[in-house]
Specification:
Glutaredoxin; 10 helices; Thioredoxin-like_sf; transferase; EC 2.5.1.18; GSTK
């Protein structure tokens, strides 16, 4: 972390609406809290599998609550998450691996695009209800954030490279090492130790732990 700044790592997957909420709030607070915010694109499917976690919406009562909760949070934080009951099936049916590998490739080559690119994937998936596992949607996202077609082509080729696959796998394993079992997983490095916060509703607590 830069001098006097607390390093905060955000492990996220664009298939997760709570990750989007946490991402936007941390983007807004990074300068107020003077944190060194590091985006860590990871694979939610891998985390669920490794920990034996189940998608929360599989419990009907919890799905019912999440629907209200995400709507309330979207309104409160002014993040355009659109959610309805059929979205839970949509999430289960969407593999975010390609999108997360594309985001990982950007992180490895053009990190300045990481924030806008990730946001655009969330917008496509959670505001415009598009299937981000389709290559044409990945292309549309890249175009929207101003990537040249040459660079986009290079990134698409990188998706299937061992370097990108391993990097995403390593980041996912790092999240697991910190104790993550879902997304977003936020890790604040304070007083020489990592503090894990799960979800987007623990950010006041994070602020308190790092003395903000």
């Amino acid at each position: 972390a830069r001098m006097g700044r607390t390093l905060v790592e955000l492990f996220y997957d664009v298939v997760s609406p709570y990750s989007w909420l946490g991402f936007e709030v941390l983007c807004r607070y990074q300068h107020i809290w003077n944190i060194d915010l590091r985006f860590r694109p990871a694979f939610l499917g891998g985390i669920m599998q490794a920990t034996g976690n189940k998608p929360p919406a599989m419990l009907p009562k919890r799905a019912e609550y999440m629907l209200k909760d995400i709507k309330r949070m979207a309104k409160y934080y002014q993040v355009p998450v659109q959610i309805s009951e059929d979205d839970f099936q949509r999430v289960l049916g969407t593999r975010s691996l390609g999108a997360m590998r594309f985001i990982t490739a950007i992180d490895m080559t053009q990190p300045q695009y990481l924030e806008p690119l990730s946001r655009e994937f969330w917008i496509r998936f959670w505001s415009q209800r598009e299937d981000i596992s389709q290559p044409e949607n990945i292309l549309a996202v890249a175009r929207q954030v101003g990537l040249s077609s040459e660079l986009t082509q290079k990134l698409l080729e990188m998706i299937s490279s061992p370097a990108v696959k391993n990097r995403l796998k390593e980041t996912t394993e790092e999240a697991l090492k910190y104790g993550a079992f879902g997304m977003p997983a936020v890790v604040a490095h304070f007083n020489g130790e990592p503090h894990l916060f799960f979800g987007s509703d623990r950010l006041e607590l994070l602020g308190s732990v790092i003395g903000k």
